[in-house]
Amino acid sequence: MAVHEVRLRRSETVAEGTMAFHLSRPEGFTFRAGQSLLLGLIDPPETDSEGDRRTFTIASAPHEGELMVATRMRDTAFKRVLKSLPAGAPLTIDGPNGTMVLEEDGSRQLVFLAGGIGITPFRSMILHAAHERLPHRILLLYGNRRPEDAAFLAELQEVERRHGNFRLVALMSEPEKSARGWSGETGRVNRALVERHVAEPQKAIYYFAGPPPMTMAMHAMLEELGVAESSMRYEEFYGY
Known about the structure:
This protein is an alpha/beta fold and 240 residues long. The chain is built from 5 helices and 12 strands.
């Protein structure tokens, strides 16, 4: 893949402790919803043993004019530098990469299992499906501790209102700690939740992404439900 130099257009907080970074999009840069890129710092003032490049899912949809990535803001050299960059700062991108992309066949229900910042590939897929008016029936089960921690929640709720093929089930595991209050579902993404919201669990295609413990737990849960390996699409990523 070619390496492109891009510019940081702007950054914003999209949930408590989570930021989105909007990048210029190189001419001719194409990707499929769900893919990722390798984002690089240029001559950073500090670095660490992991180097100056990190992989991020492209959270923007293919039809959007900018590229956008989002991440939890841990206290690492890479993220300290990224957070401090002013608008217009140069960065590099390499990609797109990844094979966890939206199915072309829209005949089977798609179930997205997301927790926290694992929402990024699904934002891209959902907005793409809505924009293209695809026939895909998509159910998103999106778990967070509190509404304050749920990136893109209001946007996803709006997509659900406008597009009949998309359904959102947001749930909070610690709603009592929220300053906003929460009247929706509570708990975590688990087998009971899937069985309650998916009419024929063995016939759906499931997508999930996250750190290894999360992906292993989702994989084991789906196996218990009788879901075939061929009906699972998943990727692991690591925090830093």
